[in-house]
Write a structure and sequence with these properties.
Layout: E1 12-19, E2 24-31, E3 39-48, H1 51-58, E4 71-79, E5 93-96, E6 99-100, H2 107-111, E7 122-123, E8 135-139, E9 143-145, H3 162-171, E10 180-184, H4 188-199, E11 203-208, H5 211-219, E12 224-227, H6 234-242, E13 246-251, H7 256-261, E14 266-274, H8 286-290, E15 294-298, H9 307-316, E16 323-327, H10 332-341, E17 347-351
Parallel strand pairs: 10-11, 10-13, 11-12, 13-14, 14-15, 16-17
Antiparallel strand pairs: 1-2, 3-4, 3-8, 3-17, 4-5, 5-9, 6-7
Pfam families: ADH_N, ADH_zinc_N
Family: Belongs to the zinc-containing alcohol dehydrogenase family.
Cofactor: Zn(2+)
């Protein structure tokens, strides 16, 4: 798109919205939002689908149509006066997180913006409109400038949830180059994690029940992959391959059984990193934890102040998501259906050409 001095902003735009009364995605014509304090307006270049979007459709935060999507990138087209001089200008390509109307300063915000005690805690795609629409309002404190010599905005949207989450999940394990990490769940998150892990100098073993996901993970650099459904002794094979087990097993799937089985591949004193959110409670052995058999960690997209480290690493190593690009907002219902049925082997995204 490039820098535009005075972009023409329409009064209305197209938005793919989940209607809780109809229980389906519909494309509506809605007003273009106006940026407020600490905000700018972004013309969306691409938006991608995440499993948590489906969770919100199953249990909507609101009883009115809401635009889903919290992974997006685009170009700034309008800046609120309160945001001028904050390091951004009209025309800038940006990626961003999805929190609005939070203070970024209270004790709660230091843990996660969902714990803010001073704001309304608006989340794009959940309790306010998200990014499967032509324009969206973004808090500048959530945003990062993206150099288009490095960043391909057609496929970059998943970085701003899936990518940052997977970077944090690996970075927080405290692993050293040459150590083994188990990627449990080799869908969109696991595929991004594989790229980050290899860039960190780690050895990767991918574990999944879908051969297509494992093949995609192998293409992205995994040192070994195992189908835990069809390989009865996969845990023994992994321990033999790694000399005792992986140093950390990171679970990206939302299947509770994956968490329950993960300790089988972790070496003594290793880490179990929780990322996926299963509907059922996961089962852990208190005795194993007390005796140091393994330790339990957890992470997420986290707070805006942690984002830049992930963005810088992504750009430095040229890591881009493995994305299946779809044309137009009318593609979203099919994307949702494929994710529900578990047949999508990559992240899917709508690109606004």
């Amino acid at each position: 798109m490039g820098s535009v001095a005075s972009p023409v902003i329409p009064k209305t735009m197209k938005a793919a919205q989940f209607d809780p009364k109809q229980q389906k995605i519909v494309v509506n014509e809605i007003p273009v939002p106006k940026p407020g304090k600490n905000e700018f307006l972004v013309k969306i270049r691409s938006a991608s689908l995440c499993h948590s979007d489906l969770m919100n459709m199953d249990h909507p935060a609101l009883d009115i149509p809401v635009t889903p999507g919290h992974e997006g990138v685009g170009y700034i087209v309008q800046i609120d006066p309160s945001t001028e001089g904050k390091g951004f200008k009209v025309g800038d390509p940006v990626g961003f997180l999805y929190f609005r109307d939070v203070c970024m300063e209270c004790e709660g915000c230091k843990i996660h913006q969902l714990h803010c005690t001073n704001g309304k805690k608006l989340l794009n795609g959940f309790n306010t409109d998200g990014f499967f629409q032509e324009y969206a309002v973004v808090d500048y404190r959530n945003a990062a400038y993206l150099d288009e010599k490095v960043w391909n905005l057609r496929v970059a949207a998943p970085v701003f949830c899936a990518g940052i989450t997977t970077f944090h999940s690996l970075d927080s394990c405290g692993l050293e180059p040459g150590q083994w990490v188990g990627i449990i769940g080799c869908g969109g998150l696991g595929q991004m994690a594989t790229q980050y892990a290899k860039a960190m100098g780690l050895k990767v073993v991918g574990i999944d029940v879908a051969d297509k996901n494992l093949e995609e993970t192998r293409k992205l650099g995994a040192d070994a992959v195992f189908n835990s459904r069809t390989t009865a002794d996969y845990d023994a094979q992994i321990k033999a391959l790694t000399g005792g087990g992986v140093h950390a097993a990171v679970v990206y799937t939302d299947v509770a059984a994956a968490f329950n089985n993960a300790p089988r591949v972790i070496r003594l004193g290793g880490a179990l990193m929780v990322i996926g959110i299963p509907k059922e409670n996961i089962q852990l052995s208190a005795m194993d934890l007390v005796l140091g058999r393994y330790r339990v960690l957890a992470d997420s997209t986290s707070i805006a102040s942690r984002m830049q480290k992930a963005v810088d690493f992504t750009g430095k190593h040229g890591i881009m998501p493995n994305v299946d690009i779809r044309p137009g907002l009318e593609s979203l219902p099919a994307m949702v259906d494929e994710m529900r049925r578990g047949v999508a082997t990559k992240r899917t995204a709508v690109v606004f050409d």
